[in-house]
Amino acid sequence: MEQRDRASVPAYEIDLGAEIEGLHREPAWQAGISRKSLVRYPDFRINLIAIKAGMRIEEHQNPGRISIQPIAGHIRMHALGKVFDLPNGKILVLDRAVRHDAEAVDDSAFLLTVSHPDNLPG
Predict the structure, then answer these.
(1) d(CA 12, CA 19)
(2) What CA–CA distance (Å, rounded) separates 24 from 51?
(3) CA 23, CA 85: separation in Å to the nearest integer?
(4) Angle, alpha carbons 23-49-102 (nearest 5°)
(5) Which overall architecture, per CATH, does domain 3-115 show?
(6) What local confidence, expressed as pLDDT, does residue 122 receive?
(7) Cα–Cα distance for residue pair 83/101, rounded to 1 Å
(8) Domain residue extents for the chain
(9) What single DSSP character describes residue 23?
(10) What is 33-88 written as a DSSP string?
(11) 106: exposed, middle or buried (C-beta count within 10 Å: 0-12, 13-18, 19+)?
(12) Distance CA 70, CA 112 (A)
């Protein structure tokens, strides 16, 4: 089921292994980072990001609360003057507007879940 069709159903499953394989076939993967929106509601989003070892997502912030959950590989996050080591099986939650960056220790894939503030447009 395509992401755009999911908003019309109350429940659905996502095969993360198949989604990661799809990201690895995207041209963006050759450059080091491939992304896909899996779920998109006005106040809630889940994105899947595949990132090659040694690649970095530069410092940024998000207006919503976020969670970062590696599902393959190992990433490292920098936020609040700390280093968060996130191998597969860990999760990091950051409050609104916390500046952070990410780097891949190994070829990795992670879920980025965003809960948007009520006053932001979807």
Answers:
(1) 14
(2) 9
(3) 24
(4) 140
(5) Sandwich (2.60)
(6) 46
(7) 10
(8) 3-115
(9) H
(10) EEEEEEEEETTEEEEEEEE-TT-EEEEE--SSEEEEEEEESEEEEEETTEEEEEET
(11) middle
(12) 9
Length of the chain: 122
Which residue's structure tokens are 């609040």? 80
- Rounded CA-CA distance 10/81 in Å is 40
d(CA 66, CA 48): 13
Inter-residue long-range contacts of 99-102, CB under 8 Å, 24+ positions, other chains counted: 99/59, 99/60, 99/61, 100/59, 100/60, 100/61, 101/56, 101/57, 101/58, 101/59, 101/60, 101/77, 102/51, 102/56, 102/57, 102/68, 102/75, 102/76, 102/77, 102/78
Q: What pLDDT digit, counting tens, does each position of 1-54 carry?
A: 555 556 667 788 999 999 999 999 999 999 999 999 999 888 899 999 999 999
Measure the CA angle with vertex 60, ends 31 and 94; round to 5°.
115
Report d(CA 107, CA 122) in Å as an integer.
31
Q: Quote the CA–CA distance of 3 and 31 in Å, as a whole number.
A: 24
3-state secondary structure of 118: coil
